[in-house]
Amino acid sequence: MYRGMRVAAVVPAHDEERLIGRVIGGMPPFVDRVVVVNDGSSDATASRAAACGDGRVLLARHARRRGVGAAIRTGYRKTLELGAEIAVVMPGDAQADPADLPRLLDPVVGGEADYSQIGRAPV
User: Fold this and answer.
1) β-strands 86-89, 7-13: how paired?
2) Euclidean distance between the first and final Cα of the chain, in Å?
3) What is the gyration radius of the CA atoms in the chain, in angstroms?
4) For strand 86-89 and strand 33-39, is the pairing parallel, antiparallel, or unpaired?
């Protein structure tokens, strides 16, 4: 829980066997559930995620690659089923820093925003 709210991380992943363990292992303790969406990977992404030993992990699978947007949508649906109050996306390629999560979550938890993102605005 983060400031009294249940948090689930959606991890879209396609062929990320090298990094998926690092992504899952880097999730802060306040993340209640980690929904890894294996998007039709042809490598060991799913088995590595399942074998990580983190009880917060739920593995969802697409039989064929549907793209990152579809993987995120599948993950969001799962977070709703799990009763999460906040869903965050943490890419399976480890390009997001879990240390940024409080900065991302604070505006939502504080009622200042319904959606928050970290990154540079498009030019």
Assistant:
1) parallel
2) 35
3) 14
4) unpaired
State which amino acid sits at residue 51: A
Token pair of 16, please? 């990320």
H-run or E-run covering 104: helix 101-109
Kindly report the pTM of this predicted structure: 0.93
Tell me which residue of 89, 20, 72, 6 sits closest to 51, measured CA to CA. Answer: 20
Contact between residue 5 and residue 84 where contact means Cβ atoms under 8 Å apart? no
Task: Calculate mean pLDDT across residues 54-70.
Answer: 98
74, 52 contact by CB (below 8 A): no
Among 15, 13, 18, 17, smallest CA distance to 34 is for 13
Of 64, 85, 80, 76, the C-alpha closest to 7 is 85
Q: How confident is the model at residue 103 (pLDDT cuts 50, 70, 90)?
A: very high
Q: Mapping DSSP to helix (H, G, I), strand (E, B) and coil, where does residue 69 land? A: helix
